[in-house]
Fold:
Amino acid sequence: MASALGTVSLLPGRALLHFLFPSCCASCGATRRGVGGGGLCRACWRALPLLDGDDACRACALPSAAPLCQSCRNGVPPVSRAAGVVRYEGVARRLVHALKFRGHDILAAPSGALMAATARAHGFDLGSGAVVPVPSTTRRNRERGYDPGALLAEEVARRLGRPFRALLSRIREVPPQSTLPAGQRRRNVQGAFAASPAARGADLLLVDDVMTTGATAFEAARTLREAGASRVDLLVLARTPEAEPLLHAPPETA
Structure:
């Protein structure tokens, strides 16, 4: 964990302020006495429920479903392969909520470092390709002041030494996926993205924060493939451990 997160050096004045007014862990609320740490205390970083990539579905990163889960055997995943870093539960769930909904953008850099380490461990070879974020909606980004997916993708790109390319845009606002049952999520995001012509012929690593049914990430991947991307791999920070019905396109329309 320490090697992936690295260290954060503070100016003397900032270090003194941190000592006098220590911040609190975004997960457990405990006082963080040490400098740096990326928004979680050391105990919570160590407690992250890391995924076993060898035991997960290679197309959607579902835990305990290697080599392919039932949904990916029955459907046509729009990604060549997928990997996740942590199970979306406990500390990991609180980390994602803090990043997405509570303004803890400081969590993006260390989380992106863990994602880059996972990409290397899985042998993701981008060649001359780029890292692409799944963009959030303009309204939600305006409310929190940043796009979590873009921050994660920028850190992954920096760590992997690959270009960051914002090749996707949201072309319509939709209700948050978390407010909808699984069966409605694919319809909710269908046609929600547009891809840049620059995606044509490219090998791309698509980055997202959390994956439940796969509706959002797979719609983004489908949009990139329809724009001519040669290959799209998927890297997510958190993956739900439950076997939700994944929302692949039917074989005849993929």
The two ends are 39 Å apart (CA to CA). The mean pLDDT is 82. Residues 1 and 56 are 21 Å apart (CA to CA).
